[in-house]
Amino acid sequence: MKFNKTSLLINIALLSLSCFSCSNIKSTLTNSDVFISEYLVGSFFYNSCIEIYNKSNVDLDCEDYHLDIYDGDEIFKSINLNSTIKASSTLVLANKDFDKTLLQNEDINIFYLEDNYLTGDKYIELRDNKGKLIDCMGYKGYNISYVSSTSLIKLENYFGGHTDFNKLYFVKISANNTKYVGNSNFPIDYEELMYGPRLKEEYFASSLSRSDGSPTGGYSEVSIASLGDGDTTVFTFPNDPDLTRESVRYLLINTPEIAHSSHEEDEFMGREAKIYNNNILTNAKHILVQTNKDYALRETYGRLLGYVWYTNEANPTLNDYRLLNFELLVNGYCRYDSRSKYENMSNGDMYYTNYFDYAYEYALSEKLGVFSK
After folding, report:
1. DSSP code string of 302-330
2. Of 60, 296, 323, 333, which has the highest C-beta tally within 10 A?
3. Left, alpha or beta for 38 (phi > 0: left; psi -120 to 50: alpha)?
4. CB atoms within 10 A of CB 109
5. Distance of CA 38 to the CA centre of its chain
6. Predicted TM-score (pTM) of this structure
7. Element (H, E) at 359
8. H-helix or E-strand containing 126?
9. What is the mean pLDDT of residues 276-293?
10. Closest C-alpha among 104, 98, 133, 91 to residue 117
11. Angle 229-232-236 (CA atoms, 0-180°, nearest 5)?
């Protein structure tokens, strides 16, 4: 799915979605036609570039702008943008040793820096020559990695320059994907991002596991055998030749524990997570369990590891299913159990984990559920 950046400019102050809001994110737009729209750091740090976008309908001479790269609190490199950026177009600033063959368009307006200054952990400011802050990336005073082996692409509803850096302004896409560099396309819009991943037919397999016990990444229709807590349910698998009745532990999340005896107490939000999970499943018309391809089929206690998909449609298409693991996280019912080893399940140009990264940042920012104290 592609979205053109120029056709999707949205005034953040007027943004209102039925299910999700950005109420705790203050508008910090600088109303500049020139701003940072993407930052890519490849598998090797020198394959890094930053994209400056001109959203106006006229060509702009950018000699009045410069990029300041900080090392801690001090500027260690200031770069003048001595270039013209065409209307609704971009200028790509790339490290000295950036491999141009990675780019999917040879006609990109690209400027190579004198050295490999872009490392994914340096605070960066875009300023005009009067000293006005136009946009920024990273954390001033700290060399903390905020983009690594991935791209950060500014979402359309935050499109523009900002006087602060917020991870919610950006979406991540899979490592080394340069197809959005030097153009005006988005991989996804905000509403789709907050909906969560979509289930793809390409993952269908007759069994959730192979003969050697490794997971296929396939999905199978299941029925509820018994309800559990917020992140564990026992299902039966009528259509899988290798599975019958399994306790399924939800991947990528960890809900608070609930008391199992009179001597224990529920952890904060544990009971609420259980109720939310069980209500969703009880009312679902169809439920699917999907394994994570080429990682682990089971966890330490022998439970099947899975993504749990559900729909309330009687005759659904795959597009009608929603990922319950994701919904528990984006609504603040669980912690995020982030693991890079799971980064092989994709929906288009995004890993499942890219969605979960955003859901975590959203719930944290809004102080939802487990993040409320």
Report:
1. SPEEEEEEEE--SS--GGG-EEHHHHHHH
2. 323
3. beta
4. 15
5. 14
6. 0.90
7. helix 352-366
8. strand 124-128
9. 97
10. 98
11. 120
Q: Name the residue type at position 348.
A: G
What distance in Å separates the CA atoms of residue 269 and residue 372, rounded to the nearest whole number?
Answer: 10
Q: What is the DSSP letter of 11?
A: -
193-239 confidence digits (pLDDT tens): 999 999 999 999 999 999 999 999 999 999 999 999 999 999 999 99
Read off the tokens for 118. Answer: 């872009």
- Inter-residue contact 365 to 332 (CB < 8 Å): no
Q: Is 89 helix (H, G, I), strand (E, B) or coil?
A: strand
Please, which contacts does 197-203 make with residues 24 or more away whose CB atoms are closer than 8 Å? 197/323, 197/326, 197/345, 197/347, 197/350, 197/352, 197/355, 198/318, 198/319, 198/321, 198/347, 199/288, 199/290, 199/309, 199/318, 199/319, 199/321, 199/323, 200/318, 200/347, 201/318, 203/290, 203/293, 203/345
- Name the phi and psi angles at 168, rounded to 5: -75, -10
pLDDT at position 24, please? 52
| Residue 206 structure tokens | 């007759």
For the record, the structure tokens of 129 come out as: 């020559």
Q: % helix / strand / coil in the chain, to the nearest 5?
A: 20, 30, 50
Six token digits for residue 216: 């296929």
- Residue 157 tokens read as 């509803």
Strand partners, 75: 70
Query: Distances from the Cα of 37 to the Cαs of 125, 162, 203, 303, in angstroms?
Result: 13, 11, 32, 43
